[in-house]
Structure formats: C-alpha cells, structure tokens
Design goal:
globular, 7 strands, 30% strand, 4-stranded antiparallel sheet
Amino acid sequence: RCIMKLIKPDKKYADSYYRAVEGYKENNIRLYEFFDMPFEKIVKYTDDMEKGENLPKGWVPATCLWFVGEQEFLGEISIRHELTENLEKLGGHVGYGVRYDKWGQGIGTEMLRQAIFYIRENLPLKKILLTCKDDNYGSIAVIEKNGGGLQDKIENVVDGKKRLTRRYWIEI
C-alpha cells in the first residue's frame, strides 16, 4: 500500500502537481484552484500565506500542504488559521483539492484526516469549519467520515448564482 503524507510543496513532486493543474483545466473543474504559477513562486506564496505576509486584501494566514504518495502529488489542502465573516459563510478553515484522476479513491478522506492531526499538533484551533456545495457528495462524504457535524445549510451567491452551502464543524 502506498504511503501518503502531507508535506510542504516539494520540487520532487512539481511535475506531478502541474499535471493535476492541467487535469482540472481539461475537465473544466473549479471546485478548488491549484496554484498555476512557477514552482519557486508557489513556495514564496505559500510561505507568505503561512506567515500572513503579502496577502491579498481580505485573506487570512493559511498553511498550504501537498498530499503526496511515494512518486506523485495526490492533492493539496489549505488550512486557514482564522475565519472572516465571509469564510464563515463560504470557505471555512479548510479547502482542498484531489487531482482529478484520483477522485473516488479515498484520498480526500485520508488527506483531511491527516490535516486534522496536523492542526491538532500545530495550530491553536479547537474546532474547524468546513463548507461545501449541497450537491458535492464527494466532499460531504470526506467531511462526514472525518467526524464533521452538519451545522446548517445556508444560501450564498457565487458568481451571481444562488448556491446552497453545507457548513460542518469538526472538533479538534
């Protein structure tokens, strides 16, 4: 069985990462946005995000980790260190993406499980908020398998369209 682990972005997996970016583009997937920039910029950007430096207006500090197997990039998870009013409605503490050709293989569930452990060990959060579209059954399963308790469903407007969003809390 393949050993999967969370790591900081690593050049060893960069080619595989960019294949994941292309997989999302080719399949017109916008559930999560991978960083489509040169590797050195990804490293600087994610370091700045973690330190809370040079952030876009309204953004909060976040830890960005890659989920990798022995030979390839499998997914990415961003852990926001705090919530804004907007993140409480849409986004939550955690955002993640699994490369398209690995969907349905339990990778998201394991990635979130390891992220919860990472949060417990490294951040002062006692519980985390995760949100997803009401019809994103893959994410619903990932969140619920990791102990997510549904708080509510709220209506958001995304790109001018109404969207029902599920909000879950996970105790750390």
